[in-house]
Structure formats: C-alpha cells, structure tokens
Design a protein that fits this description.
The chain is built from 7 helices and 6 strands. The protein is an alpha/beta fold. The chain binds zinc ion.
C-alpha cells in the first residue's frame, strides 16, 4: 500500500532570501567546482582499483568467467609472483590462452609469456587465477612457453618474462626474491628447467633484481 500524496507546503521565501547577492553566487559556484573535483577524484580512484595500470606491452585477452579457470574470486594481498612453464613444447601464448578460455578447462594464469616474447594477460589482476594450488589466493601467476621438452625459455621469452616480473614486483612492492616457482609450493617439477637447474633460477631472480627499463 502506498501513502496518499500529501499536499506540499511551499514556503514563501522572504525578500532577503530571494535577492541573492553576486558574492553568494560566486561562492556557490566555487563550492560546486570543489565538490565536483572531489567527486571526480573519488570516482577515478574507484575505477583504478587495485590501482594498477597495465602497460601497452601487455596484450589483454581476458578469458570468460567459466567456473573454475576464471571464477571471478577477488584476489587479496599479493605476497609472491609464481612462475610456471606450460609443459606443452612449441605452443604459443594465444593457444594456451584459448585453452584456458574453454568452459571445460579448470586452470588459468594471470599472464602467459610467448615464444616471440609476447605477453598475454588472461585474468584480471584483482581476481585469483587457477595455477598455483593453495597459493592462488595470494599470488600472481605467470605461465611461460618454451620451444622444447627441456622447458628452457628462449631468449625473447626470457627477456619478456624478466620485464614482466620486474614490473609486477614494482607494482606490488615485492622484491625479486619474492618470485617463486610452482615447485616451491607443491614440489611439482614446474617450471621444469628451473627446477632441474637451481642456478638458472637464481640467475633469473638476479636478472629481475638488476632489470632496468
Ligand atoms: Zn606450474
């Protein structure tokens, strides 16, 4: 049931109220500008959440929300960057991205670094990916393509990976030593070459530490 509309009592403005002085109008305009500016800043701030602007050297090809690969679950504090290898020699970044995008796929990563050094983003940074088991909740994940079964990254791929890791460390206030391998989480031999060659992993971390744009 709705209330009967009531008769609106209109207040008769007194003569003083009606005659707005020029100064009052100027003051009102200034207040409006300030309010508008503050509102704009607040709105922009919300839009920017989590405050990270993805650079143009990253190709954003966000996959659909498909249940398990991308669940649209909010990612909280990021404590580590987890590096993986795709385990499927010779496949491209987009092939792996398209695999993640299938409704039946249950895995995903935030980024894939390809054989030509291209970087594809698959999952938004404010959502968890499905790559690193119980550490999905506080890590950004990177899958890396590789030309053969050794799992060693080629030169172009490696350079892009270092650049991506450096950028992520800077954005999240992490050190290069906060990079982890999937192996460090579950003991899975991933990324294979950098599990079998711990010195190569140490070098990778060092290269991220020393990287400059
Ligand atoms: Zn892995």
């Amino acid at each position: 049931m709705v209330d009967e509309p009531k008769t609106i009592q209109t207040e008769q403005p007194s003569p003083e109220k009606r005659s707005l002085k020029r100064g009052d109008i100027t003051a009102a305009a200034v207040v409006l500008v300030i309010v508008g500016f503050v509102a704009g800043v607040l709105l922009l701030g919300r839009e920017e959440k989590p405050g990270i602007r993805v650079p143009d050297w990253i190709d954003q090809q966000i996959i659909g929300i498909n249940g398990t690969g991308r669940r649209s679950t909010v990612l909280g504090t990021v404590n580590n960057i987890a590096v993986h290898y795709v385990g499927n020699p010779g496949t491209t970044a987009m092939q792996n991205r398209n695999y993640f995008n299938q409704p039946t796929t249950t895995v995903s990563s935030h980024f894939i670094v390809g054989l030509d050094g291209e970087i594809v983003q698959c999952v938004p940074l404010d959502e968890v990916s499905s790559a690193t088991n119980h550490r999905n909740s506080d890590t950004i994940s990177i899958e890396v393509c590789h030309p053969d079964t050794t799992g060693k990254f080629n030169e172009k791929t490696y350079r892009s990976l270092i650049r991506l890791c450096r950028w992520l460390c800077d954005e999240y206030g992490l050190e290069a030593t906060d990079l982890i391998r999937h192996y460090d989480v579950t003991g899975k031999r991933c990324p294979l070459y950098y599990v079998e060659h711990p010195d190569a992993w140490d070098q990778l971390v060092q290269d991220v530490a020393n990287y400059e744009e």
